[in-house]
TrEMBL record:
ATP binds at G11, R72, Y73, G102, D103, G104, S105. Its cofactor is Mg(2+). It comes from the Bacteria. Pathway: Carbohydrate degradation; glycolysis; D-glyceraldehyde 3-phosphate and glycerone phosphate from D-glucose: step 3/4. It comes from Ruoffia halotolerans. Its EC number is 2.7.1.11. Residues 3-276 form the Phosphofructokinase domain. This is ATP-dependent 6-phosphofructokinase. PANTHER family: ATP-DEPENDENT 6-PHOSPHOFRUCTOKINASE (PTHR13697:SF4), PHOSPHOFRUCTOKINASE (PTHR13697). Keywords: Allosteric enzyme, ATP-binding, Cytoplasm, Glycolysis, Kinase, Magnesium, Metal-binding, Nucleotide-binding, Transferase. Substrate binds at T125, I126, D127, R162, M169, G170, R171, E222, R244, H250, I251, Q252, R253. Homotetramer. It is found in: Cytoplasm. Belongs to the phosphofructokinase type A (PFKA) family. ATP-dependent PFK group I subfamily. Prokaryotic clade 'B1' sub-subfamily.
Amino acid sequence: MKRIAVLTSGGDAPGMNAAIRAVVEQGIHHGLEVYGVYYGYRGLVEGDFRLLTLSDVHHNIRRGGTMLYSARYPEFKHKEYQEKAISQLEKFGIDALVVIGGDGSFAGALSLSKLGFPAVGIPGTIDNDIPGTEYTIGFDSAVSVALDAIDKISDTAASHNRTFVVEVMGRHAGDIAIWAGVAAGADAIIIPEEEFLIEDVVRRTEAGRSAGKDYSLVVLAEGAMDVDNFVEQFQILAPDQSVRGVTLSHIQRGGTPTARDRVFATLMGARSVDLLIEGQKAIYLGVREEQLTVFDIVETLEKTEHQVRQDLFQLNQKLTDRGN
């Protein structure tokens, strides 16, 4: 093996650049040339490859986003485009590929592996929604950004005795909502994995007010309900409360990655190079019980249900159920 490549695909996530840096530095350590593929799978098909050096990557460990950029490219699900990508890789003399992204990105890596081209995945998505691993790169940073915003909103909420409904990212996964909600002491956490009644949310906020709280906080994952619709229904049931809705949106995807995201991204990036050298493919690196673990991509993609931390969700439910 003389040359490998690395790409990022799907939504950007803080820590992707740290993983890229680790792939480059570990590759150079092993005497390999490392190429960056720009704009994800589109760049793979179009041959947008550039040789990466230490000077290209060493500053980026502290930057959010992805220095390799990303682009949607649904065409890659077709074998014709996968074969074009392999032709480009062979043209540049590249022997293996590291893919950083979510489950859609992993599906692309698996397709290449099935066609005989070695590819290893690194989970990079703020939603923390890849089955198997307990942690994905970017999740910790996204929670930290969400919590910082919620803390600021809480100051205003308390100053005006208001109820704030804060919508965080999580179309199909409620992990950001759960972690940020528990950390902020939310009166209710609404996630797509669990059914809810707005009447119950109103009851919890009113019980908190009766117990002496000067504001109420609801953390809402975007996949559970639109925040404006939620606020409208809430206000009808609680006309005496002053209710505001806030959508944090894409600020959660940007910004400086946390130490945890940088460290695990570095561990995964370096180990991915080692695995490719060992001849591995169709696998990805994840975390289980705080240890770096290798998972099978096929088995992962076959799992359709996302598991959230039920212990944290139930803890919030118990702490805010004040018997009213």
